[in-house]
Amino acid sequence: MIKNSILSFFTLMLLLGCTSPEKINFDKPIIQIPKKMPAPINNKGSLYSRQGASLFADKKDLQIGDIIQVVIAEELSGDTNNSRDLSRSNKSGFGGGVAAPTTGNTLNDRSQGFVDKFNKNFGFGISTESSSAFKGSAKSSLDESFNTTISVIIEETYQNGNYYIKGGKEMLIDGQKQEIKISGIIRPYDISTDNSISSSQIANLKILYIKEGDEKNAVHVPWGTKVLNIIWPF
Prior knowledge:
The protein is an alpha+beta fold. The chain has helices at residues 2-17, 109-122, 214-219, 223-231; strands at residues 67-93, 127-157, 163-173, 176-186, 196-198, 203-212.
């Protein structure tokens, strides 16, 4: 039994040591095929045309497949504190015999006499007492900032002139892999003169940031601890 346990332990350690290193996929990205532009809407009698240039902004006339830069500057902060303290106690008894009251209500003389006589003859009594207590607290604090620049591709244009953008970046440095993916909808008027846009000006913004490697293993809870937290009943 002990020999099998030791053999299983060393087998597990060997498998963990033989895990493959992080890799990057260098496959060629999907070609962006330009889609047919929507037909312009002509509003007869309108003083201003929707297709005309803006008097106050520089609209970028970009096409599907063009590249722009997204300046990501996001901050996440939060502080929560929860606590709970529960206690319960219960005590009940059948007095010194089978019919002694525990609710505080006294019996009449006739009933009390019968109870005393019964208890004296049989010496029968039942009592129960139980108590339980629970106390728990949880506190979490989050303060993170994420700043980087990433190039994205315009994948679709909408009828109102907005663009749907999507892009990603993968880096593998000394066994540490970092992957960033971003998507969202932007307005052409929000694109600056240097062909960039801030992440705060992107609608339906989605950012995925993944880390793989020793750094991730150092700051995350091990999977064994997570399993124990799930199945531990107390």
